[in-house]
Amino acid sequence: MFVKIPLHYLRLSVVALFVVALQSCGPGKPGIYKGAQIPGGMQSKMHGLDNDLLEALKANNNDKLEGMMSSELIAAGHERMRTAEQISYHMQTGDYVLSKEYYIVNQTRGLDTLRERNEGVNNFDLIYERTAPEMYYVFFTPKTPQKWQVTALFCKLSYGWKLCDLELNLSADNGLTAPQLMAQAKKQFDQGEWLEGLNSAGMAEDCLRPYTKMKYLSEDEITNYYNQTAFKTFVKNQHMPVTVGQVNTRPLIIRVLLERNAEGAFPNINYLTKLDLNDTKALAKENEEVGKVIGSVFKGVDKNRKYIYYTIYHDKGNGHANPKEHTDMRQVLKS
After folding, report:
1. What is the residue-averaged pLDDT of the chain?
2. 3 state DSSP class of 262
3. Which residues does 317 contact at the CB level (< 8 Å), separation at least 6?
4. Distance from C-alpha of 197 to C-alpha of 322, rounded to nearest angstrom
5. Residue 9, class by beta-carbon neighbours within 10 Å (0-12 exposed, 13-18 middle, 19+ buried)?
6. Domain boundaries of the chain, sorted by first residue
7. What is the pLDDT of residue 26?
8. What does the DSSP assignment read for 67-95?
């Protein structure tokens, strides 16, 4: 049976469909949408930009990157190119994946704050300027324990969606963020692991700003703990330099540095030896003996750790050495 629909109803239906289409294409209500809250069509569009960006960064394709950038970011010139090169380098050591994303709809201009309160100890504020009606922040991190975070900001400008900010910053050491590292430092100090506690507190300070506009709620506490508590606790309880008296050659540990790679952050123990640096067999034997007792020199340093690195300098007398004359034990032990 054929039913005749009045023409004015058809017109109303067409108008209604047109309005719905406009609403689905345009921005939603002003506010901040996180992850799954981002409207499906918009999220798909942004993920397309994400994929293009990661592809261009991994290949260090400057032409493609410039095509995605705002005129202001292009004008940044050398600084922008250096950031892209650094990101490209880090992307060779681990696959980067999307960790967080925020779609922002603005009604006015001025400063605003993105308040993340669903990350536990990692809760943070991100202070940003409402420079465009629509903005999209995305954080990428590698799957490796050592995490350098890539932060990108896309804005909808008069000439389309463009990349307006791009940064690379350390976000985690050995898989732990700054607030987690501070908690670890406190636990290590409580256990008398003075070097480990100081290193964890220092790593927390290094990981404090995964993005320059991003501030952990515990940032001030972390900074104060490192500057006022951790260092003083270490100096009070751990004598440096320290002679390894359990080894016959009595090497003198002068400092301990942190060395980072994709697998994590590891101690590099620098010590002076009276042995000839060309006598690799004697150096290897001495280093083996140091390795056996290093946990008694620095409690906890050999606990749950994949690597400990050593850099050896020749003692020219009275604890003095030529900094240019040293041996990296990783090279010696491979020979």
Report:
1. 90
2. coil
3. none
4. 30
5. exposed
6. 28-172, 178-237, 242-334
7. 59
8. HHB-HHHHHTTHHHHHHHHHHHHHHTSS-
The answer to whether 199 and 258 have CB atoms below 8 angstroms apart is: yes
Give the single-character DSSP code of 4: P
Distance CA 181, CA 169 (A): 16
Cα distance from N-terminal residue to C-terminal residue, the chain: 92
For residue 182, is pLDDT > 90?
yes
pLDDT per position as a tens digit, 100-111: 999 999 999 999
* Residues 6+ away with beta carbon under 8 Å from 221: 182
Token digits of residue 174? 């050995």
At 98, give phi and psi (nearest 5°). -70, 125
* Rounded-to-integer distance, Cα 225 and Cα 250, Å: 34
**What's the token pair of residue 128?**
């940003």
Give the DSSP per-residue string, 230-241: IHHHHHHH--SS
Supply the DSSP string of 103-147, one letter for each residue. Answer: EEE-SS-EEEEEEE-SSGGG-EEEEEEE-SSEEEEEEEEESSSSE
DSSP, residue by residue, 158-206: TTEEEEEEEEEEEEEBTTB-HHHHHHHHHHHHHTT-HHHHHHHHHHHHH
Determine contact, residues 143/154, Cβ cutoff 8 Å.
Answer: no
CA-angle at 101, arms to 95 and 104, nearest 5°: 155
Are 288 and 308 in contact, with CB atoms under 8 Å apart?
no
At 20-66, the pLDDT tens digits run 333 444 577 999 999 999 999 999 999 999 999 999 999 999 999 99
State pLDDT tens for residues 290-331.
999 999 999 999 998 889 999 999 987 766 677 667 888 764
CATH ID of 28-172, from 3.10.450, 3.40.50, 3.30.750, 3.90.380: 3.10.450
Question: Dihedral (C-alpha) 228, 259, 169, 177: value to the nearest 10 degrees?
Answer: -60
